[in-house]
Amino acid sequence: MTVTASAPGKLIILGEHAVVYGKPAIALAIDRRIRCTLSKASETTVNGKAFDEDKHPYLKYMLRSSEHPVRIETESGIPPGSGLGSSAALSTSFLRALNKLNGTDIDDGTLAKDAFDVEYTVQGGASPLDTSASTHGYGVALNAPEDAGRHLWDISINGRTWSVRDIAIPEMTLVVGYTGLHAATGPLVEKVRRYKDRNTFAADIVDEIGRTTTDGLDALRKGDLVKLGKLMTHDHKLLSILGVSCNELNKLVDASLRHSYGAKLTGAGGGGSMMALTDEPEKVCEAIALHGGKPFVVRTGEHGARLE
Questions:
Q1: 205 and 281 share one domain
Q2: Rg of the chain's alpha carbons, rounded to an integer?
Q3: By three-state DSSP, how is residue 39 classified?
Q4: Do residues 156 and 279 share a domain?
């Protein structure tokens, strides 16, 4: 028996890092996916090679629930460490396929929770934003007001609870600029935690990111891309103050603003990717390329994790 599942990457429009502390955040699934094909085997392999636990910490954790050795084949359209949710897409697609291989079906709420447990454990801290976006697809918001959209599920850990809602997303064009720099999420989350714990100013910045995200939900509901773009740029400045941006990201953001409503880093930061909200994607792509980034246009409205 062979089972294949795929799941999308994501962009965080507003709220990264602050979401770890219960603030609202908004993520969109994008048309870049990871695909996992699993089959029973005499020994566990990954893409034709013997399974190495040190190289594949996410798979190591998820394979605890496997009833037998597994042959694993993966295909990815998401650069690792790019801020586009590669680990969440891997976790959700792998778990969806593994459950089917084990003879069970898993509902979306349970899948999102189980994948979050993987992310939280391997990274040493996370929010369920990435795995919820990858599981559900389309657009999701964490800890948003009740009128923001349909309630999907709640996820709790260590006394903290996030409420996940489906949100409507207006038609818009987003250009991603990849720096080519790998940035692990865990250390950046820990960096913000240390800063916040010892500095009330950093705690104030986290609160401001939360307020900016709430304003962004209102802009999305009204389809006000001008306001949304301004909020994105403001959010990038706040994240820079927290120390999670870098020169390469700032260059790409600055280069994009001339032809965009707004631009910001997406994901944990420290490298990875930025994005720009624009009606002139070709000009933004050119500006990003001229400043050393790898640009590509992404499509939103992507469905979530599914069997193929």
A1: yes
A2: 19
A3: strand
A4: no
Report the C-alpha gap between 257 and 255 in whole angstroms: 6
CATH no. for residue 274? 3.30.70.890
**Mean pLDDT (whole number) for 13-25:** 91
> What is the C-alpha to C-alpha distance for residues 73 and 15, in angstroms, rounded to an integer?
33
Q: Within this chain, do residues 147 and 221 fall inside the same structural domain, yes or no?
A: no
Whether 129 and 229 map to the same domain: the answer is no
Q: What does the block give as tokens for 4?
A: 């294949």
Classified as helix, coil or strand, 188 is helix
Average pLDDT for the chain: 94
Domain of residue 34, CATH code = 3.30.230.10
Q: How many residues does the chain have?
A: 308
Domain assignment of residue 276, given as a range: 173-297
Q: Each residue of 169-218: pLDDT tens digit?
A: 888 999 999 999 987 777 888 899 999 999 899 999 999 999 999 999 99
Amino acid at position 167, single letter: I
Same domain, yes or no, for 164 and 257?
no
pLDDT digits (tens, 9 = 90+) for 114-165: 999 999 999 887 789 999 999 999 999 999 989 899 999 999 988 888 999 9
Positions marked active-site: 130
Total count of domains within the chain: 2
Q: Looking at the predicted structure, is the pLDDT value of residue 88 above 80?
A: yes
- The residues pairing with 70 across neighbouring beta strands, listed in sequence order, are 40
Statement: residue 81 has pLDDT above 80: no
User: Rounded CA gap, 103 and 55, in Å?
Assistant: 28
| Residues 256-272 pLDDT 10s | 999 999 999 998 889 99
219 shares its domain with 265 = yes
**Does 188 lie in the same domain as 143?**
no
CB 144 within 8 A of CB 163: yes
Token pair belonging to 300: 């939103």
